[in-house]
Amino acid sequence: xxxxxxxxxxxxxxxxxxxxxxxxxxxxxxxxxxxxxxxxxxxxxxxxxxxxxxxxxxxxxxxxxxxxxxxxxxxxxxxxxxxxxxxxxxxxxxxxxxxxxxxxxxxxxxxxxxxxxxxxxxxxxxxxxxxxxxxxxxxxxxxxxxxxxxxxxxxxxxxxxxxxxxxxxxxxxxxxxxxxxxxxxxxxxxxxxxxxxxxxxxxxxxxxxxxxxxxxxxxxxxxxxxxxxxxxxxxxxxxxxxxxxxxxxxxxxxxxxxxxxxxxxxxxxxxxxxxxxxxxxxx
Length: 283
Fold this sequence. Notes:
The chain is of the alpha/beta class. It has helices at 15-30, 35-42, 46-53, 61-71, 76-93, 106-117, 136-142, 146-154, 173-177, 183-196, 249-265, 269-282; strands spanning 7-8, 11-12, 120-125, 166-172, 202-207, 221-225, 234-237, 244-246.
C-alpha cells in the first residue's frame, strides 16, 4: 500500500489507524468473536467497529481497554502499546505534533508519525545514512532548506527519549563511501555514526563490499515496531518515486527475516566501528 491516505466521506484511513485496527481485528479473530459481539461490549453499532478495524476513525482509550478485556488481552505492555499508537494517531488526525509543519512529503510525514510512536526500528540502507543518524551538515547537503534540516533533526530526539527508541541499522559500504556534501561533511558524519553507535539503544553495523551480493540489494527498507517485534510491525520500503507501506502480515514478517539475513553477513558492532574509523581516516 502506498503512503497516500484513502478517504471515505470526511474520514481518513491513516497508516497508524489501519495498523491499530488490523491488530484489533487479529485479536478479535483469535478470540473467536464477531464484530457484532465487539459492538455490544462498546454499546456501539457494528458499523462503528468496522470503521475502527479499518482505521477510519480515531480510537478512544476506553474502547481499546474494553476490547482488550473482551479479547483476553491483559498484559500491560500489549495494552499500553495499543494505547500509545492510538494516542499518536489521534494527534496526527488533529494535525498535532512537530511533523505537521515539517516540509516533508506525505509519505515522509507518515513515517515521522510512525517513528514517534515506535519502540524499535530495524533499517537497511544502501545509499544514504539513515535520517536518525545524520548530522546537520549531512542533512543540509541533501536539502538546504533550513526548515527541512530542523525537522529532520527533530526526529533524532527519539534516540534520547525516555524510553529511547531502539535502533538497529545495517548500512551498505556504498552508503558510507557516498561523499554527501564532500570530504569534510562525510568525515564528520562517519565520526557521528561511531559516537551514536555507542549508545546502548543504537546498533550500527556495516555490510562491506567484500560480503558480495545479498538478497535485499534492490532497495532499502525499515521495519517499524510498536510493541514486541512482530506484534504490530509496519514496513516502509524505499522504492524510488513511490514509497510503499506494508502494514503487518506476511510481507512485514518476510522483511523482518530478510533484515536478519542481511545482518548475518554484516560486520559485528565493534568491527563496524573500526571499519567506519578507517573510512574516515581515508578522507
